[in-house]
Amino acid sequence: MKLLPLLALLAIRVAAAQEGPAYRMQLEGFNYPWPVALYRFESQGQALEMAYMDVKPGRPNGRTAVLLHGKNFCAATWEGTITALTGAGYRVIAPDQIGFCKSSKPEKYQFTFQQLAGNTHALLESLGVRSVTIVGHSTGGMLGVRYALMYPSQVEHLALVDPIGLEDWKARGVPWQSVDTVYRRELETTAERIRSYERATYYAGTWEPTYERWVQMLAGMYRGSGRARVAWDSALLHDMIYTQPIVYELGALRVPVLLIIGDKDTTAIGKDLVSPQIRATLGNYPELAKKAAAQIPHAKLIEFADLGHSPQIQAPERFHKALLDGLASRAVGTTSPASSRASRSGRKSSARPRSLQRLARRSSATQSPSLFAGPTPRVCKAYRRSPPARGPVRTRHRIFRRGWTPACSSPPAPFRRSITRGEGLPIRRNQAPELAVTDIQGKPATLAGFKGKPYPSISGLPGVLPAAPSRLGG
Prior knowledge:
32% of the residues lie in helices and 16% in strands. The chain has helices at residues 3-19, 79-87, 113-126, 139-150, 179-186, 191-201, 212-223, 227-243, 276-279, 285-295, 311-314, 316-328, 337-344, 354-363; strands spanning 37-43, 46-55, 64-68, 91-95, 132-137, 155-161, 257-262, 299-304, 382-385, 393-394, 399-400, 404-407, 415-418, 435-439, 444-447. Strand 5, helix 4 and strand 6 (155-161) form a beta-alpha-beta unit.
């Protein structure tokens, strides 16, 4: 009889051990595979900390990859991808977004993808990084699209791994839930619920012991002292994801896009709230991926027929080979059917003006296409008289009559571009005048003259092109 209390105590301890570890609000106690740094800044009137890993390669290739995690993921879940990319020469920066994992979880914060993109951009500026390859998974894919739309001149390549937001759930019949309702549901999160969901959605019905680490990473925050704040921020982020789909803006992307999809993925926010008839139409990723690739002007689609929502974890070798091969061809090869039809019908492509297309053909053997894969150059609508010049004024791809220089309207943030010199300067063959570029705060950056290259680069701001005039002045 005396053994019963001991057995009961042992059973309690075993159950506690099976339950798993408890982590504090910023995931203290969970170790990341590389050192974690903190970017401290102010946003929306409060001091915040953004955790990130900055992993340098042994043999750099000159490119930087920024990895954007999904809602039920952290920067640490990119561990295999970081290893693969640094092995290929990439510097890799993997942040935890505000509201996630080891970063701050503010109680009152206006979560938008624009705000998260702005936070990420500020982090990269603090590290002196101006040109990046973005790799976004799940919710991170939605953020990656927003980042590429906001800062197109600084994105060399965009890789989207099973991005959500390719359909508008509210338009498809998924009912809205208040933040308070979602918060109450988040408080009920357990390791078993996380495991069941991930087995069905992330890993196509399969399970490996290595997946358990990521289950405990999430569940541990809901066991810790900060579980209420973790659940609250998760509810705020759920509302952001539900109300801000990216499907309507895919056609505005002007960077090369690599779209990697696991066809067994069935992720759809709120699909448990709709009827079986509606549920059957949601999260059809083979169909959604093809529609998305058709909308994006410069897209290449890679599908894995047997994988789910997280191919980088489920089949890392196959995924990383596809990712590295796709990023190695910096101009993603396929264009959308809409673009092909436009060219066949003789209509001018919206991707870039014909003058840029001619220069691209002439320079394709030596010049990286990523330099002209940005947004359509702004049209110069007015011209001003300048002092007499001793020769023609040559811009990047136009020669203006003597005494005239273009005056261009300001493009969107982050750069204002204007031609400030060129008049009165003798221009030799294969030379360009000095162009002045200012950032949104008016701080100057120089665009040095070039020789023998149809596309100049801005010192410290690679890949940014000056505005292109639409006609000859005079």
